[in-house]
Amino acid sequence: MNILFCYSNIMLAKLSDPYMICAAAGLFCGALLVIFLGYKQPHDRQRMFVCSLFAIFFMFVGAHLLFFLVGLPDFTAKYGASIYDVGSFLTAVLNAASGMVFYGGLFGAAAGVWIFCRILRLPVRPYLNVLSCAFPLMHAFGRLGCTLGGCCYGIEYHGILSIQYTDAHINPGISDHIADFARFPVQPLEAVLEVILCCILVSVYLKTVNRYPIFAVYLFVYGIIRFFDEFLRGDSIRGLWGPFSTSQWIALACIIGTMIYYLRIRRLRQRTV
Predict the structure, then answer these.
(1) So where are the chain's domains?
(2) Cα 19 to Cα 152: distance, rounded to the nearest angstrom
(3) Alpha-carbon span 24 to 16, nearest angstrom
């Protein structure tokens, strides 16, 4: 109960944050898209609603978990002095996991869909396909929130559409140097690409009627987008592992994984012909 109370206080403190407002708007628009697609295809709407709740719950769990894991190397140095019993340890963990990472939320949501479908013994693809169309739309709103909140900011850039943040956007440990100079608008760029991707996925979904795994298409295309736009980011909180950021390694894994998946499917189809 104390853990839930602490987490609630942390999230309530962020309700006025531009990112949280945009994220809420993204969830609302994503829900409208799911409802629209649900009417276009023969799904049990009540089950689709419950499945969406599973996805949202596990999305938050996954997003916070990956944020914590990325920052785990600095956990002891940052919170070690304030840990003296079980309660303080749990509080430190919640504070260390107070941020969210998109890929953690994405795979958490997919896990939620899989768990829901396994409980009711339903096919996963029809439900995951619908939600996959909504993922980029929700993320686009999240990237607008990043733009307004000053996180996930771009590299130094003084050309057209550059963004100049002020000292008010400095968040220690997240955006320490954001106001040093003008930044590349990497967050709005990704938001635009996400909206385009959403339109493509919806078009594919409506034309193919679950013949293809939309989630795999999304992972592949977004993986390419994310891998390259990470080179345009200037924040350090995304984590660097060798030559690439954490998200770039995950994007590469998604690209390679989906390519292997499609090659395998293609071989199976050739054998059955």
Answers:
(1) 2-149+169-199
(2) 11
(3) 11
Using CA atoms, how far apart are residues 241 and 243, in angstroms rounded to an integer? 6
Q: What is the pLDDT of residue 223?
A: 95
pTM of the model: 0.82
**What's the pLDDT score for residue 41?**
65
DSSP category for residue 244: E
Among all chains, which residue has been given the structure tokens 């309700």?
15
Give residues with Cβ within 8 angstroms of 170, minimum separation 6.
Answer: 150, 176, 178, 179
- Burial code (b: 16+ CB inside 10 Å, e: under 16) for 241-267 equals eeebbbbbbbbeebbeebeeeeeeeee
Structure tokens at 102: 């998109």
- The answer to whether residues 108 and 192 touch, using CB atoms and an 8 Å cutoff, is no
| Average pLDDT per block of 10 residues along the chain, 273 residues long | 47 62 90 83 76 91 82 65 63 64 89 94 90 94 88 88 83 75 92 96 86 90 94 78 84 94 79 61
Phi, psi dihedrals of residue 110, rounded to the nearest 5°: -65, -40
Query: pLDDT at position 107, please?
Result: 93
- The contacts found for 155-161 with CB under 8 angstroms, 24 or more apart, are 155/183, 155/184, 155/186, 155/232, 155/233, 155/234, 156/180, 156/181, 156/182, 156/183, 156/184, 156/234, 157/182, 157/183, 157/184, 157/185, 158/182, 161/185, 161/188
Closest CA to 134 of 218, 53, 212: 218
Q: Helices marked H in the chain — which ranges? A: 2-12, 18-40, 45-70, 75-79, 86-96, 102-119, 124-149, 186-208, 214-229, 246-272
